[in-house]
Amino acid sequence: MASLTKNQDFHRLSPVWNILFNLIAGIFALACVFPFLFVMIISFTDEKALARDGYSVFPKKWSVDAYSYLFKAGDQLLRSYGITILVTVVGTIISLIMISLFAYAISRKGFKYRKFFSFFAFFTMLFNGGLVPSYIVTTRLLGLENSLWALILPLAVNAFYIMIMRTFFSTMIPDAIVESGKIDGAGEFGIFFRLIVPLALPGLATIALFSTLGYWNDWFNALLYIDDPNLVPLQSMLMRIENSMQFILANSNNTSLGVGVLQSMPQDTSRMAMVVLATGPIVLAYPFFQRYFVQGLTVGAVKE
Amino acid sequence: MKAIGRFFRDMNRNKALLLMVLPATIWFIFFSYLPMLGTVISFKEYRVHGGFLSSIIHSRWVGFDNFKFLFSTKDAFIITRNTLLYNIVFIFIGLVLAVAMAIVLSEIANKRLAKWYQTGMFMPYFLSWVIVGYFVYSFLSFDRGMVNKIAASFGMDATQWYSEPKYWPFILVIVFLWKSLGYNSVVYLAAILGIDKSLYEAAMIDGANKWQQIRNITLPMLYPLMTILTLLAIGRIFYADFGLFYQVTRDSGTLYGVTNVIDTYVYRGLKTTGEIGMSTAAGLYQSFVGFVLVITSNYIVRRFNKDNALF
Q1: How many Å apart are CA B302 and CA A1, to the nearest integer?
Q2: Residue B276: pLDDT above 90?
Q3: CB-based contact (8 Å) between B92 and chain A?
Q4: Where in chain B does DSSP place strands (E)?
Q5: A74-301 in CATH: which number?
């Protein structure tokens, strides 16, 4: 026993190196979190103090003006929140259904066309038409510009997630389950929804999380396809106010506020307050997500 | 006749599963395969003429003219150089730092602290480039940014960061590493935690110290993962992260010389300058070279180890 303890001690880093390693990891971790804290501090700074001293970690004067202005003139903020939540929820559901059905079918050894459809999906990972033809198909052929579908559909399917799910189905789900379902007289869809889906929940949850994050953070599709202020999602709204705070007032129902509010509005701090409000849900939720992402990374690493 | 009969019998037998692949198949047709056909407009002078198909059919065929124009401009060289150089730097510095950070995290004695560090590092992965753009601005703003303020307290002059190209190669590399390092090191950390502990015990009995263990066990066990991830990244070396080069630089025109990459060039050709033909040509150039690189790097992976290959 004694020698084993000695060995374990020997396995440990020396105290000096242990402290050094803690410093390296700790400082980098802090550097990753710091900008968010910094933006949060700026959003609670008094606008005048900010004009005088610039962005500071220790502002001379604190203030919640930015937030109270946003709640007064924040129709656009609310609407954008609504769009983002709607797109994220609907998009994730559509995406899960399409991905899991496709992946399940091509994981079934009895499916005559599995090779063809596997390649059909896989080839899209190798070659793509590029931005311009995709843009032309989406706007000219499908006519999706200025509709919520332009935010939902382009992100709905992803060949890589299909490959992950196919691997998941074919490694985690024994053929005997499908057979037992058939003996009990269930159809293919019955087998899928009643027997397979409950077993595949961990895999589906992983894909759902990736998809949720993708939709929440998407701004590119809005940049391409959305001009209507009523359909602008959060990330895209943040891009637009980068240039002009006017954007959030242009669509305010509260017309009595008007230009006066814009002039007195704490512009810099309001911007940062909006960054905080848009990021808040993700920052609060991500420690819970993280565990699943790490699992998801492991699922993805397993090959058929 | 017999063949047709058999075809319908097969279809019928597989109809439930065919129905399952139908929605995503339709999606692939519209969002992947039609755009692939659409690349034909890089050989045409694109004119809007009714709908999608008739526009493409009615646009005049110009052969390789779009490519000739593209490659006769300075742009082609700049965007190719920028895309390649940034990606090469990202891949190699990213690899070294991610592996190093994974080893650091795995060796920290206090596991609870290590978990906290890991959570902190992972955060940037969850944020969009728009948000990261704001973060960078809070540091680099000319009159209010933290960096200029710190410089001022040392008696240095303020810098117009968003119009000084010479700093951006460094800024972009730092921002990229800041955002991706935590995620990547978790990938390697997961691999390290999967290494059989008895290897280390055996090494300890043989009297190997920590550094020898890292050099002779941890790193060799990580080589397969390092190889596959690096080769996959090389396969994507012709693609740049649009958000990094567009949002973080605030689309600043004076910086284009060092920040314009193929993806931002194609976007601007489509939405800002309206050079549809050249923009499509640049996109096809990217897809084609990307395709060749993916195939090549996969071939190389297969030569090393069949199990690691993508296909």
Answers
A1: 46
A2: no
A3: no
A4: 44-45, 60-61
A5: 1.10.3720.10
Chain B contact set for A124 (CB, 8 A): 28, 32-33
Sequence-ordered list of residues with C-beta below 8 angstroms from that of B11, at least 6 positions apart, any chain? B18
CB contact B190 to A (< 8 Å): yes
- Quick one: tokens of B60? 């005049």
What pLDDT score does A252 carry?
58
Phi/psi at B275 (nearest 5 deg)?
Answer: -90, 75
Query: pLDDT of B227-269, one tens digit each?
Result: 888 888 888 899 999 999 999 998 888 999 999 999 999 999 9
Chain A residue with minimum CA distance to B193: A298
- Whether residues B14 and A133 touch (CB distance < 8 A) is answered with no
**Cα-to-chain-centroid distance, residue A189:** 30
Cβ–Cβ < 8 Å for B42, B67: yes
- Between CA A278 and CA A44 the distance in angstroms is 15
Q: Does residue A63 sit in helix, strand or coil?
A: coil
- What residues in B contact A125, CB-CB < 8 Å? 294
Mutate to test the interface with B, among A4, A19, A32 (most CBs of B within 10 A): A32
A29 and B28 in contact by Cβ < 8 A?
no
Q: What is the pLDDT of residue B249?
A: 92
Predicted confidence at residue A246, as pLDDT, reads 63
| In contact, B81 and B90? CB cutoff 8 Å | no
| CA A235 and chain centroid, separation | 11
Cβ partners under 8 Å of residue B190, min gap 6 = A294, A297, A298, A301
Which whole number is the average pLDDT over B273-302?
89
Contact B225, B187 (CB under 8 A): yes
Put simply, the chain A residues between 93 and 122 with a CB less than 8 A from any chain B CB are 97-99, 101-102, 104-106, 108, 111-113, 117, 120-122
Q: Which tens digits make up the pLDDT trace of B12-41?
A: 888 899 999 999 999 999 999 999 998 988
Q: What is the pLDDT of residue B97?
A: 97
Structure tokens at A52: 């005088």
Residue B277 corresponds to which amino acid?
A: G
Provide the 8-state DSSP code for B160. Answer: -
Enumerate the β-bridge partners of residue B44.
Answer: B61
Residues forming beta bridges with residue B45, ordered by sequence position: B60
- Of the candidates A92, A134, A99, A221, the one whose C-alpha atom is nearest the C-alpha of residue B23 is A99
Strand positions, DSSP E, chain A: none
Q: Which residue has the tokens 């194609």?
A: B266
